[in-house]
Structure formats: structure tokens, C-alpha cells
Amino acid sequence: MFRYYFKLGMRSLSRNVVITGLMILLIAVGVAGSITTFALLRALSANPIPAKSHQLFVPQIDNRGPNRITTSGEPDPELTFHDVVALRANHDATGQAAIYPIYLSAVPTDINIQPVAAKGYAVTADFFRMFLVPFEYGGVWSKADDDGGSNELVIGNDLNRKLFHGENSVGRELPLEGHTYRIAGVMAQWNPLPRFYAAADVQAFDLPPQIFLPFRRAIDLKIPTAGSTGCALNYQGKGWDDLVHSECTWISLWVELPDAAAASRYATFLSAYAEEQKANGRFNWPAYTRLRDVDQWLKYLKIVPSETRISFIVALGLLLVCTVNTMGLLLARFMRRGTDIGIRRALGASRGAIYRQYLVEAAVIGLAGGLFGVLLTVCFIGNLDLVFEPRLARTVHIAAGTLVLAISLAVVVALIAGAYPVWRASRIQPAWQLKTG
Amino acid sequence: MNIPVRPILSALTRHKAGVFLIALQVALTLAIVANAIFVISERVIYISRPTGIDESNIVVVDNRWVGALTPEQARAKTAADLAMLRQLPGVADAYADYSFPAAGPWATLWGISLDANQKSPTSYSEAYFTDEHALNTYGVRLVAGRNFRSDEVTSGSQLEQSTSGPIIITQDLAKKLFPAESSLGKAVYVGGVPRTIIGVISDMEVPAVGTRTFAYRSVLSPIRWADLGGDQYIVRVSPGQAEHLRLSLAAALYRLSRERVIDAVDGVQSFHSLRNKAYSRDRGLVILLTAASIILLLATAGGIIGITVFWVDERRRQIGLRRALGAKRSEILAHILTENFFIIFMGVCVGSLLAFTVNLALMHYLEMMRLPTTYIALGCALLLTLGQCAALTPARRAARMSPMEATRAAIV
Q1: Domain limit, last residue, from A255, A286, A301
Q2: Are A413 and A324 in contact (CB under 8 A)?
Q3: A328 vs B284: CB contact, 8 Å cut-off?
Q4: Which of A80, A88, A146, A365 has the most CB within a 10 Å radius?
Q5: Containing domain of residue A117, as a range?
Q6: Are residues A126 and A218 located together in one domain of the fold?
Q7: Do both B219 and B333 map to the same domain?
Q8: Which residues of chain A does B154 touch, with a Cβ-Cβ cutoff of 8 Å?
Q9: Does B235 lie in the same domain as B114?
């Protein structure tokens, strides 16, 4: 019976090609638009570190008070050097990563090779364990080296490929900007997006960092930040030492707090620290601190560009209009066949049979829309960079799940759109139709 | 012609579902399209507004130093580069800054107050760190006052930013700060420090991308900028030389010193291409919303045509009877079009409310601006016209029906 209904459905669809084509096209466009923008939104707002997102926190301290220049009324997203040093003295946290972006370059001795530059971070050793950084070779410098000014560093696998042809380079020397470092480890491919750990300072959807220096060593060598430095407007300092002792904020601090109890203890410690600074006369405004986990942090920074949200909302709206549109067109089509239905009913077809027959027709439209929608989705995702920035577009990949989702969505849309018209069709009275038809 | 409104309305109540679906579709379309057109118009302003500088003759070099430099070393190297660049044939002028107009990588937000103890600033603005070459490099016009003298320019890097000395501001900012009088010689306060305005220049966009309220409120502060990591060199070239110099500037700089990194792909770019990249997000959104709006309008038109055709078909007998009883073709046409107008009108009434609701939600979640009523009115007019156009073909077909044919067709 199903096959017969399917055949009937196909025949009916081919009878009015323009309207059928319009319905299929609209379902396909609505579905492809929604699925594509949804895939992009999901990729951009993905939790970059799901296993630990409730154990990693960013402390913020308001060291500006009413002179705050940011319009949001929030403390600076980064900390001053001396606050980082003071907070690191806390032993409640099971891990503490101080981070600032750096940009280093190597000048090859061969003058035919142009100098290469690498972006990366000056970090404390905890960084790698806290953020689950995988290693291809070797590992991180020891925690003792964190404060001993170790000359070791970790490089990314891309840089390792460029400089050492991808071999195990642990123990090799790497001269960078006048200093020679020893490679302690080579990071495997690792680039959680959005880049939550330094999102306040650099593009959140960048390529993987390639260089990690011990934090203390970078400070001792006076390697400047490659990110932003937030200073008071009347800052008059000169030179590195002034900056390190200033109220300028330029370092991100992340703390690892294993459970809610530890987090609340740390929050208390943080506000106590701010109160103490106030008591010492550093702040003449109420102490104001913040402690955010990964989710809250990403929300606060508004990592996901509003354009992607707007696109998703518009695509959903488009899908909704397509659904209503299909509903109207199906209603018109089914009612037009009132005579057919009346005759079939008079010849003994049950309401259920009519119901099934027309539901199959609606599902066929949905399926056709879905298949076409899948093609469109593949086409849209492949050309996402025509509309969205390449660095955002490359976060989205075509997955089998996405395509299955597209087909299912199309069928669901067609069934929702078909439900009412089909119900109306099944209510048609045989006698009445025969008389008036 | 007398249009019988009451019969039309009572006929509509016979088709509740169809009327409801079309009105709903129109309402949803209006809510989306009105907001989309508003977003489009806003973004188009960002994309197309003039920067106020000599755009087509500006090339930007992103120069990164190699090695940890002291501020003195960075300053000496930057000065040597700029001196070399200014000597190059085809180069009109050049200076180094941490950013550049409209598409800059960074921005420094300054609150400008008229009084040292003011609670909130009179105007926000964004700062450039410039020397005496900046005006000539950008090709902006000095409207009043004078340029910086080289002895007024102090040195700066991320470790030392002098925040005193005179400033030059744009006309837009001058008008905001001193609407009634000349701003020349007046002192304004930045972070509590008094700064004297010595010059007013033609409007020039601030560095940040897509600034809404203070796009042309730039301040030039006399700082010879030399970032320890390297800078943007803004280079103005003679007309027609941009492409040639874009390809040869890096080589010239490498000849002077190899201790630098200028990215082989986008180390040197024309201002146009930098600006295009910076606004790619806005352009993308405009393309997307335009496409979505067109599809929506076409879909709605298609839906209206489909259902009107059905209604006309269904009422052949009635139409035939009316014609046989003496109704003119124009009356049939008017009947169908009026009916359509009523349905769409209901749709746009609901749609206007819906458009405001959508806008409120977007304002709350996405920091959108309030939707001006003109956009709703525009959307309503658009949909009413669209509805009439869509109904025209089926209505004409109904009007063409001869009384005989119509009566016969209905019996078959």
C-alpha cells in the first residue's frame, strides 16, 4: 500500500511542477541555511575544554575603580604583574597558569632564508597539565624550573616541522632573538577553539601557538607582551621595570580549582586579597573581584561574533516562513483534490487511508527537499569563507551527522507543514463533495 | 467603482485556514525583513563611509623586529626605516603608528572631558600616536591651527607613553566639545591631564572597526611611536605607485636590515585591501541578509500566488454567476485584489508588532539598535505591493473568465 501511495504522491507532484518545485526549493533553502549557520554557531561556541570547564577559573581584580575606561563596568580582563605574583602564593589552587602572548623570531644564518617568526605564550609549567596539552616528543620543563629561570622551551609541531623536519628535536638548541634555548618538548597538534585561555588578548580563532617560554624566564629577559597592555590614561612610566611595577594589566591568570568548595574558598581568598590591597591604600574604592569559569568567561568576552547569531536567527526565521508557506500550498493542493478524495471515500476508503496517502505525499516533498537541502548544505559549508571570515569559516567541517540532521529536519518540516492540510483532507465528506463537485 | 467590502470580508471567513496561513507568513516575513533591512543599512554605513584619508595612495607595512630591543634601539631602528622610506622614489611621506584608520589592529579609547574632575567624559575618542609627518601621510586637511612641531613630539613605546603635550583633533570632535566656539588653544582633559588643542583637521576615522557613535572623533597625540616588537609603517605614495611599491617595499627594508620579519604574504598591504579584510564580516552579513530577504519575499509571493490560484479555481462558479449577472471584469479584478489587500493588511499589522518584538529581543541579546519605525513602514509598503503584484496574475485570470465558461467549468 505504501508503494502505491508513494506512486500516487509522485504522480500528483509531477502534475504541478512549479508549485512542487517551489515547495521543495524553499524547504531545501530553509533547511540548508539553518543547518549551515547552526554548524558554524556550534563550532564557534563549542566548549573548548569540556572535561575541565568547571574547574578552570579566571580571577579578576578591579584596580582602576571609577577611572575605568572600559564601558562595561567590569574589572580589566587581565592582571598586573604584582597581582599575578601575589595570587600565585595561594596554595588552594591545584594549578596556576600565568600567561602572556609573545612573538619571537629566528634569523637563519643562511641569508637566503627569510627570518621566521612564531607566535606563542610565556606560561608557567602548570599550563600544559591544566589545559591538557598533548606532547609529540618530550614534555614540559620541570616545575622547579618555573622560578629558576630555565632556558628550556616547548615548541609546536608546525614549527618543529619547519625547523627540524618533524624529527624528535628534544634536547636540541634553538637560538631565538639572541638567546639559546633547549627544547624540552614538542607539542602535538593542539588548538582548542575558541582560544579561551588567552581570549582577552588575541584573536580567539587563530592558528595553533608555536612557542612556549617559561613565564619567569620571559619576564627576566624582558620579552614584551605581543598583546594589549591596559594602562591608566595618565600612566607616566618608562621602561620595563616601571611596567612590571605599574598598575598596567597585561597578564592572564588561570587557576585550577577541583570542586565547588575550592572555588568558593578561592573566591573568598580573592576578595580578601582585594580588601587587603584597599586597606593598604592601593584602592580607594570598594573592593571588586570576579571569578569566572570557562563558560562564564567566554560569555563575558562575547567570543562568538554577533554576526553568526544573527545569521542563525534569520535562517531559522526563513525555515519557519518556508514551513508556513509549504503548509498553505499543501492545503490548497489537497483541497483542490476534494473531488478525488470524495470519490475515494465514497468507494470505501477509510479516513485513515486518505490520511496515510496524503501524509506520504507530504513526506515525499520533505525527502526531496531534504536531499536537495543536503546538496545545498555541502555547497554552503564549502563556500562559507565567501561570507564569513576565513578563520571562522575553517572551524566548520562537513560531518555525516550534519547531513543526516539536514534530511531529518526537512522531513520533520514537511510533516509539520503537512499535518493540518492532511487532516483537513481526511475530513472531507464523501457525499457533500460528490454533490457539489 | 464601488468595491463591496462586506461580501469580501464574509467570503474570507469561509477560508479561515488559508487566510490565517497567508497572514502568518506575511507577518513573519515582515518581522524578519524589516529587521534584516535595518541591519543591512547599518552595516552598509560601516562598509561605505569615507575614512577621510587619501585611501588609494596608502600602503601599510607590518614590520616586526627580531630580538629583544630596548626602547632606544627600537626608536633608532624605526627612525632609520622611516628616513629610508621617505627617500624612496614614489614615496610621498611615512610615519610609524600602532594602528591606522578604520581597520586598525588596535585602538586606544580616550575619554575627553572639559573639566579635570568630570565624572563621565564629554566625548569618547580614539587616539593616534603621531609625529609631524602624520598629516601629510594621511593627506588630511588642516582646517584650523597648526601641525605638531618636531620638538613637541615625545618618544613612546608600550613601555612609555607620554600623556602630556598638545593635541590635534578632528572637526567632528571639535564640534562635539566646543559647539559654539573655536576649540583652538582650549585645554581638554584626558585621564585628568590637561591637553591643549593646537590644530583641527578634516574628519578622519578612528582606528577601531565599526565604531558607532565616535567614528570620526580622532585625536592625534604627539608621540613618535616605536613599539619594541615592531610597528605599522603607514606610507603614502605618489598616485599610481601603490601596487609597485607594495611589491618592493619589503625588499627595500630588508636591504637596510635583515633583523626583521615582514610576512611574505600580508606584510605589506594596500590600505584598500586591509580595509576590505577588516569589514569582511559586515560585508558577509550584508550578502547573507540580502539573500535571505529576497528568498523570503519570493517565498511569500509564491505562497500568495499558489493560494490565490486555488481560490480563484474554487470559485469559478461564483465568479461566472457574478459575471452573468452583469458584474464587469474590473469588478472581479477589484474583488480579488481587495481580498488580497485585506489579508496582507492583517498580516502586516501583526507583523509590525512582531518586528518590534524581534528587535527588542535582538537589542537585549545582541546589542542591536532600536528599529526605527520607517523600516517597519517600508516593510509594510513592500509586502502590500508584493501581495498585490502576486495576486494580479490569478486575479486577471479570474477576470478573463467568460460567464459561460465559468458556469460550465464548475459543473464538470
Answers
A1: A301
A2: no
A3: no
A4: A365
A5: 50-301
A6: yes
A7: no
A8: none
A9: yes
A109 to chain B: closest CA residue: B258
A70 by DSSP, 3-state: which?
coil
Residues 258-277 of A with CB under 8 A from B: none
Please give the full DSSP string across A264-307, using - where no structure is assigned: HHHHHHHHHHHHHHHHTTS--S---EEEEEHHHHHHHHT-S-HH
CA distance B169 to B191: 16
CB contact under 8 A, B21 and A324: yes
Question: B261, B290, B325: which is the final residue of a domain?
Answer: B261
Given this model, what pLDDT does residue A201 score?
Answer: 64
Q: Hey, are the CB atoms on B28 and A387 less than 8 Å from each other?
A: no
* Same domain, residue pair B179 and B81: yes
CA distance A111 to chain B (A): 8
A193 and A263 in a single domain? The answer is: yes
B221 and B312 within one domain = no
Domain match, A206 and A324 both: no
Q: Which residues contact B14 (CB under 8 A, 6 or more apart)?
A: none
- The domain boundary, picked from A282, A301, A320, lies at A301
Q: Tell me, yes or no, whether A219 and A296 share the same domain.
A: yes
**Consecutive H or E run containing B373:** helix B373-400
Cα distances from B20 to residues A321, A413, B13, in angstroms, run 13, 19, 10
**Beta-carbon separation of B281 and A389 below 8 A:** yes
Question: What's the count of helices (H) and strands (E) in chain B, helices before strands?
Answer: 12, 14
**Each residue's pLDDT tens digit in chain A (437 positions)?**
678 888 877 777 777 788 888 889 989 999 999 999 999 888 888 888 888 888 999 999 988 877 665 556 788 889 999 999 999 888 788 999 999 999 887 766 566 666 677 889 999 999 999 999 999 999 998 877 777 767 889 999 988 888 888 889 898 888 887 788 899 999 999 988 888 888 666 677 778 899 999 999 899 888 888 888 888 877 777 778 888 898 889 999 999 999 999 999 999 999 999 999 989 888 888 888 999 999 889 888 888 888 888 889 889 999 999 999 889 888 888 888 888 888 888 888 888 888 888 888 888 888 899 899 999 999 988 888 888 877 788 888 888 888 888 888 988 998 899 889 988 888 887 766 555 54
* Domain residue limits at B34: 5-48+281-411
Please give the DSSP secondary-structure letter assigned to residue A52. Answer: G
In a shared domain, residues B42 and B93? no
Q: Do B32 and A29 lie within an 8 Å CB cutoff?
A: no
Residues of chain A contacting B307 with CB distance shorter than 8 Å? 328-329, 331-332
Answer yes or no: do A293 and A324 share one domain: no
Residue of chain B minimizing CA distance to A393 = B281
Give the count of domains, chain A. Answer: 2
Is A328 in contact with B300 (Cβ distance < 8 A)?
Answer: no
In the block, which residue shows the cell 489579508? Answer: B343
Shared-domain flag, residues B238 and B140: yes
Q: Note whether B159 contacts A240, CB cutoff 8 Å.
A: yes
From the list B25, B192, B300, the residue facing A234 with the nearest CB is B192
* ipTM here: 0.80
Residue A322 and residue A297 in one domain: no
Same domain flag for A121 and A246:
yes
Residues from chain B contacting residue A420 (CB–CB below 8 Å): 17
Chain B residues with CB under 8 Å of A246 CB are: none
* Residue A91 distance to chain B (closest CA, Å): 32
User: Could you say which residues from 344 to 383 on chain A have a Cβ atom under 8 Å away from some Cβ of chain B?
Assistant: none
A366 plus A319 within the same structural domain: yes
Strands A152-156 vs A179-187: parallel, antiparallel or unpaired: parallel
Nearest CA in chain A to B33: A314
CB B119 within 8 A of CB B195: no
* A311 contacts in chain B (CB < 8 Å): 285, 288-289
